[in-house]
Amino acid sequence: MLVNAQPDMEVVGEAANGADALVEAKKLSPDLVVMDISMPELNGLAATKKLKKIAPEIKILTLTRHTDDGYLQQLIKAGVNGYVLKQSAPTELISAIRAVVAGKSYLDPTLAERVMGGYAGTTGLLGQGPNKITGREAEILRLIAWGYSNKEIATRLDISVKTVEAHKGNTMKKLGMASRIDIVRYAILQGWLQDN
């Protein structure tokens, strides 16, 4: 309703899940797709990656309640053109749509300060440079997300429990994570919890 209320905007299609979003986007060829992250069948990150491959000209604006650094980092890597929080004022969505359609990038003001802090070296938000996680760190995060204990991970990787804990702590700090739930969310976005 908010988008259709704008004189220069029109909603041309809707989808209930990520797979349908791809079908509709391909069929309707919109200027912009407003993509949620949490969708059944195919999450927003996976749908974004696939849409960027099949229709790179379509701009993608993420609309989500997630403020986690891991989500933002992965979506930026996937090629989203903008990121807006559902809890922001409705005018933010309209501003974001206008900016992205005009060829600009858009980041919700609530997150902009954290991103700037990341570039200044105060957080590991974007996971670049010294904040990029290593293969071993990713391996440990994946196992944590799968539900393995630190002791089980240590046995599996033939390293000490203290090494597992150190890698886990360093990685969580780099990615701005606060809990095991953040690790699981990150793993879902990475596709680590899917069998295929």
Explain this structure to me?
The protein is an alpha/beta fold. The chain has 2 domains: 102 residues, Rossmann fold, CATH 3.40.50; 58 residues, Arc Repressor Mutant, subunit A, CATH 1.10.10.10. It is built from 9 helices and 4 strands, in the order αβαβαβαβααααα. The chain has a 4-stranded parallel sheet with strand order 1-2-3-4. α1 packs parallel to α2, α2 packs parallel to α3 and α6 packs across α8. The longest helix is centred in the last third of the chain and has 15 residues. The protein is elongated. It starts with 17 loop residues before the first helix and ends in a 6-residue tail after the last helix.
Topology:
Layout: H1 18-28, E1 32-35, H2 44-54, E2 59-64, H3 69-78, E3 82-85, H4 90-101, E4 106-107, H5 109-119, H6 135-145, H7 150-157, H8 161-175, H9 180-190
Parallel strand pairs: 1-2, 2-3, 3-4
Helix pairs in contact: 1-2, 2-3, 6-8, 6-9, 7-8
Q: Judging by the overall fold, what is the CATH architecture of the largest domain?
A: 3-Layer(aba) Sandwich
Spatial shape: elongated
CATH superfamily placement of the largest domain: Response regulator
* Biggest β-sheet: strands ordered side by side in the sheet: 1-2-3-4
Task: Profile the largest sheet.
Answer: 4 strands, parallel
* Helix fraction by DSSP (H/I, runs of at least 4): 40-55%
Number of helices: 9
Structural class of the helix and strand makeup? alpha/beta
Q: What is the arithmetic mean of pLDDT?
A: 83
- Beta percentage is 5-15%
